[in-house]
Specification:
globular, nine-stranded mixed beta sheet, 284 residues, Cytosolic phospholipase A2 catalytic domain
Length: 284
C-alpha cells in the first residue's frame, strides 16, 4: 500500500454520507493519496470539503455542527409540509427547504481556506447535478482540462463552491431546485449517483466507488417525506447499479438499515464507514 494513489467517488445517500467521512479517515491512516475526488448529493459535501483541504476529523465536526441546525428546523419543515399539501399543494415542486443553509455552510467553511469559486480548488473535483428541464448532467469541476466531451454531460468550471454543492444536494421534495444561468438544477443522484464516468473523463485512474448497501427493510418509512425519499433513492440505486456494471473497486458500506434522514445516527455511520474502509483497504 506504500505510495498508493487512488481516485475516490462518493455516492449520494442522504445522512448516510457521514459514512464517507469515516472512509476518508481510514484512507488518511493508510497514507493513501487521493488524486481525484468527486461525489453526488451528500457525497458532494464530503468530497468538496476534502478537496478544499479539510481533514476527515474536521469534516466530521462540520457535519455535527450543521446537523444540530437541522434538528431545530424540523418543526418548521413539518408545518410547511402540512401547509403545502393542504393549502397550496406545491410542496413536491418547491421542496421543504430552499437548501440555502447548505450553500451558506459550504461557502463559510471553504472561505476559511481561501476558496470561493470551484475553480479555486487545486485538487481535481467533480460535483454533478441534473438540469430538471432537459435531464442533462451538469458537472461542476475544479478542472479546466477535459479529456473528451459528451453531448449529455456539460462541464462548468466557474460557479461559487456553495452553489455547486447545493445544486448537487437538491433532493426532490426535501430541497428546492437551484436556479443557475437558465437552468433549474436538482440532485445529481437522479442521473449520476456514482459519478465515476465524470472522474474518468477528467483523467482519473484507479477509481474506488464508495456506495451504500441496498436497504431491504419493508418498514423503513414513517412519513410522507421518507416515502418520497425512499422512492427516489430506489430509483437512484437502480441507475447506479446499472452504471457500475463492469466497474471494480466498489466499496459497499453496510449501514444497518439507517434511514436517509436519520440524523441521530451520525457517530454510528462514521464508524461504520471507517471500519469497513479499513477492512477494504487491507486487501486493496
Amino acid at each position: 500500500m506504500k505510495n498508493k494513489k487512488i481516485s475516490l467517488c462518493l455516492a449520494g445517500g442522504g445522512i448516510k454520507g457521514v459514512a464517507h467521512i469515516g472512509v476518508l479517515k481510514a484512507i488518511e491512516e493508510k497514507n493513501i493519496e487521493i488524486e481525484y475526488i468527486g461525489g453526488t448529493s451528500s457525497g458532494s459535501i464530503v468530497s468538496s470539503l476534502y478537496a478544499a483541504g479539510f481533514t476527515a476529523e474536521e469534516i466530521y465536526n462540520i457535519f455535527k455542527k450543521y446537523c444540530k441546525k437541522i434538528r431545530y428546523a424540523d418543526l418548521k419543515n413539518i408545518i410547511k409540509l402540512i401547509y403545502g399539501l393542504i393549502i397550496e399543494q406545491k410542496i413536491i415542486i418547491d421542496g421543504l427547504s430552499s437548501g440555502k443553509e447548505i450553500e451558506k455552510l459550504i461557502n463559510k467553511e471553504c472561505n476559511k481556506k481561501g476558496i470561493y469559486n470551484i475553480s479555486d480548488i487545486r485538487k481535481p473535483l467533480v460535483v454533478p447535478s441534473v438540469n430538471m428541464n432537459t435531464g442533462d448532467v451538469i458537472c461542476f469541476t475544479s478542472c479546466l482540462k477535459r479529456s473528451e466531451f459528451s453531448d449529455k454531460i456539460k462541464f462548468i468550471n466557474n460557479i461559487p463552491i456553495g452553489k455547486a454543492v447545493r445544486a448537487s444536494c437538491s433532493y426532490p421534495v426535501v430541497f428546492s431546485p437551484v436556479e443557475y444561468e437558465d437552468m433549474e438544477l436538482i440532485d445529481g443522484g437522479i442521473r449520476e449517483n456514482v459519478p465515476w464516468k465524470e472522474l474518468e473523463l477528467l483523467g482519473a485512474k484507479n477509481i474506488v466507488n464508495v456506495v451504500f448497501e441496498t436497504d431491504k427493510n419493508d418498514n423503513c418509512c414513517e412519513n410522507l417525506v421518507e416515502v418520497a425519499g425512499r422512492s427516489i433513492d430506489l430509483l437512484c440505486r437502480e441507475l447506479s447499479n446499472y452504471e457500475m456494471q463492469g466497474t471494480y473497486n466498489n466499496l459497499e458500506i453496510k449501514t444497518k438499515k439507517i434511514g436517509l434522514l436519520d440524523i441521530s445516527k451520525l457517530e454510528e455511520l462514521y464508524y461504520l464507514g471507517y471500519k469497513q474502509a479499513k477492512e477494504f483497504f487491507e486487501i486493496f
